[in-house]
Amino acid sequence: MTTPAQAPTSPRPTRPTLVTVGVAVTVVAAVVTGVVLRAWLIFHTPVNSDEAIVGLMAREATHGHFFAFYWGQSYGGTAETDITALFFLVFGSTALAAKLAVTTLSGVAAVLVWRITRRLVPSPGVALMTGALVWAAPFATVSLSVLFYGFRGATLACGLGTLLVALRILDGSRRTTDFVLLGLLTGVGWWSSPEIVYYLIPSGLIVIGAVVISAGPRGTVWIPRALLSLAAGAVGSLPWWWANATSGFASLNTSQFASGHRTVSFGGHLSNFFRLAFPTELGLRTPNALAWVVGAWGSTATGAVHAAATAAVIAAVVLCLTRPGRSMAIGAGVLCFPFVYALSPATSVFANGRYAVFLPPLLAMAVVTGAHVAVSRLAGRRPVVDLGPERVPRPAVPDRVTSRTTVVVAGVVALCLALTLAGFAQVTGTSDAFTSGWGNPDGPSLAVITSLEKAGVTTGYANYWVAYRLDFLSHSRLTITTIGFDTNRSTSILDTVLASKRPAWLFVPPATARPVGAGIQFAGFPLNVGPDQVPQSTFVATLNRLHIRYRVVHAGLVTAVIPGPAVTPRQARMPGVPGGPATGTAPGPTVRAAPAGPSAGTGG
């Protein structure tokens, strides 16, 4: 007699553990913090002229006109600008659409960090928290992630992409698509900015590790794949090669990065990194002002916090370097970063976070990996070579190691979120800053555009920080150019103004050039007075001396002086124009590449 078979019982649903709940809370808190702060920044930060150039280029791209580099220079590839153009096609060619494009790229970077960390540590929750951390901290990165400067967001995404693909190859993938993707990402990243080398160092080490541990004849396996990656890299970087082939490889001329700035030695760059850039990327300094976030605690406490944070990073890097395999490559990437930074001519003398924006993802991955190694060793587990499945199988990790690592990483994320919020509070400065002022941050400039149009102004001359943002925000209904000492980004805009019959001369009156007025709208620099850094009083005196009649239009934050007959820059005796009082006698204004700092139209 047989007994009927028992029906299979479904497994009981597992209840979320305290660790799982902690991961969820931490990730949600980080994601919400990153979203809310970016929303505030988007609706409170006016567009500056460096961004406006990207907007103008992206607008040209929507009409089929593409460029290899940021206007007026031979670096800063336009892959990110072309992505912005796609957003323009979908959402309209507005500043908001451009900000959404770069914000999306920062989200892509966070997702890539999550997927990379998933291959560095065994805990999915820890990897998820690492991606969320990169999304929400430090405040310098968050604040820069809504500014569409044109190429660093794409460079970062490409660099992280190469790292992820390299780890896939290390873990046994030999698919053609992986090697093609590795080459394409490297090529596009190089075209965007050679700063991708920060990620090519660990990616290259990981690929070398994959070659070393591979079985069988390496030549027949790896040489064809290497050639495939090189060919894909050449395709990805083709705009870089094309532009340089017609310019005598101007991208290799490092003097363009130092134009207008004092020369800084390797030691000076290295000092700037450790004194300014590094603590900014740790979240201990605010961007631009570089004030200590915990400065109110006093110099002793600030120094102690700085030292403790630096020591924690050093310990994490050392732990990464002592764990053979992929962890060592991540540690090497962080270790090499300050020296590559100091060698780079693009870092100039500034340390507002822009040039070190590639560091936080590497730091996050190194700290998390170091935490896992530390917890494992404290649990009595010996470090193992973690190269890939072909050589050494990954041993199971006890639950206590995973849960303790999760707690440590959750604490790191919470601390970094606190520093991000503290940095935001210090930069905004008032208790009601978050709830007030929501709207179009470019509203006052739009009012200027309306007033100028009503007065019949269509073309004119202005300071760099005034000209191009009026061009962009007016959707080119106004055509305003720079002259003389002000960096000129577009010969076509310049030619249009030079050929116009009655161009206006735009000035920012000193009374409005305050932080609450034109100072915010026009980048806040003290030289925002008029074309070629000339004040209105000087220009009017020149017109009176030449017996040229004019009319004055008060357009809010800007005053337009419109001469009766058109006055050329040379006739107006502009100091930076050839033939003017400060230069020689050659006719016409000049068009020059921009310097690499934020003082005169950087593009970098």
Question: Which key terms come to mind for this protein?
Answer:
mainly alpha, disordered N terminus, disordered C terminus, 5 strands, about 600 residues, about 55% helix, globular, single chain, 4 domains
Topology, element by element:
Elements: H1 18-42, H2 49-61, H3 79-91, H4 95-118, H5 124-136, H6 139-144, H7 152-170, H8 176-192, H9 197-213, H10 218-236, H11 238-245, H12 266-281, H13 299-321, H14 326-343, H15 359-378, H16 399-428, H17 443-454, E1 459-461, H18 464-473, E2 479-481, H19 491-499, E3 504-507, H20 518-521, H21 536-545, E4 550-555, E5 558-563
Parallel strand pairs: 1-2, 1-3
Antiparallel strand pairs: 3-5, 4-5
Helix pairs in contact: 1-5, 1-16, 2-3, 2-18, 3-4, 4-5, 4-7, 4-15, 5-15, 5-16, 7-8, 7-9, 8-10, 9-14, 12-14, 13-14, 13-15, 14-15, 15-16
